[in-house]
């Protein structure tokens, strides 16, 4: 199986502790294929672009996402640390929180949470899509006049119907935002940072959480 080019390995090497040694090798394959694939970036597309469509043990690559045990929270903390290194001296730590859409369908898509699609909706018609809560760090990049919002943490925000079907207690989007805020505060201990949101986040509870974080 092909590995990542030597020039990009140092960038992803901090993520290696998230995986076992047998899993880390197919992870590199998936990263390489995802970077090269065009269109939907599925596991099959990643393998196909690398010429591994007929690999006898292709199921190992699928198991990275379906059965592999690794911590997404720990991965987000590692990613946040890598993004923090891109900030120039004196640049404020600005973290943006918002809902992001995933335009996918299917009866087997679990933990569904529906959000309003602002692009497709109008005053007379509301379109909803699958969504999740996302946090991103505002980072200035040398090739862009405007800073970019680089995501480092996402959490599913299942709807009340999905939670009821799964037998779980329902949490609102604000509840999940508070969870994410605490995770970020844990990683930015004793560092001053600013949380930026939209009108949905204008609530007393979230304000108190920001002051106590």
Description of the molecule:
The protein folds into two domains: 9-66, no CATH class; 72-212, no CATH class. The chain has eight helices and five strands. It has helices at residues 9-12, 21-36, 43-49, 59-66, 72-84, 160-166, 173-187, 204-212; strands spanning 93-102, 114-116, 128-139, 148-156, 193-196. Strands 1, 2, 3, 4 and 5 form a five-stranded mixed sheet that branches. Strand 3 (128-139) and strand 4 (148-156) form a beta hairpin. The longest helix is centred in the N-terminal third of the chain and has 16 residues, at 21-36. The protein starts with 8 loop residues before the first helix and ends with a helix.
Produce the secondary structure layout.
Elements: H1 9-12, H2 21-36, H3 43-49, H4 59-66, H5 72-84, E1 93-102, E2 114-116, E3 128-139, E4 148-156, H6 160-166, H7 173-187, E5 193-196, H8 204-212
Parallel strand pairs: 1-5
Antiparallel strand pairs: 1-3, 2-3, 3-4
Helix pairs in contact: 2-3
Q: How big is the Rg?
A: 19 Å
Overall 3D form: globular
What average pLDDT do the residues reach? 80
Number of domains: 2
Number of strands: 5
Q: Mind describing the biggest β-sheet?
A: 5 strands, mixed
Quick recap of the structure?
By secondary structure, this protein is α+β, with helices and mostly antiparallel strands. Helix content is 37%, strand content 18%. It folds into two domains: 9-66, no CATH class; 72-212, no CATH class.
Keywords:
2 domains, five-stranded mixed β-sheet, 213 residues, alpha+beta, 18% strand, globular
């Amino acid at each position: 199986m092909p590995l990542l080019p030597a020039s990009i390995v140092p960038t992803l090497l901090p993520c290696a502790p998230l995986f076992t040694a047998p899993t880390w090798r197919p992870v590199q394959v998936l990263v390489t294929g995802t970077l090269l694939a065009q269109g939907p970036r599925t596991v099959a597309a990643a393998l196909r672009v690398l010429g591994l469509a007929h690999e006898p043990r292709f199921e190992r690559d699928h198991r990275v996402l379906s059965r592999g045990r690794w911590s997404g929270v720990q991965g987000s903390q590692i990613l946040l640390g890598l993004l923090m290194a891109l900030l120039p001296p004196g640049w404020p730590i600005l973290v943006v929180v918002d809902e992001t859409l995933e335009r996918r369908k299917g009866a087997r898509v679990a933990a569904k949470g529906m959000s309003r699609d602002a692009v497709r909706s109008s005053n007379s018609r509301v379109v909803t899509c699958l969504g999740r809560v996302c946090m991103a760090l505002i980072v200035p990049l040398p090739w862009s006049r405007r800073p970019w919002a680089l995501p480092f943490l996402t959490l599913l925000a299942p709807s009340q119907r999905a939670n009821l079907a799964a037998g779980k207690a329902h949490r609102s989007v604000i509840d999940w935002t508070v969870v994410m805020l605490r995770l970020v505060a844990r990683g930015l201990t004793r560092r001053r940072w600013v949380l930026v949101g939209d009108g949905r986040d204008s609530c007393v509870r979230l304000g108190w959480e920001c002051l106590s974080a």
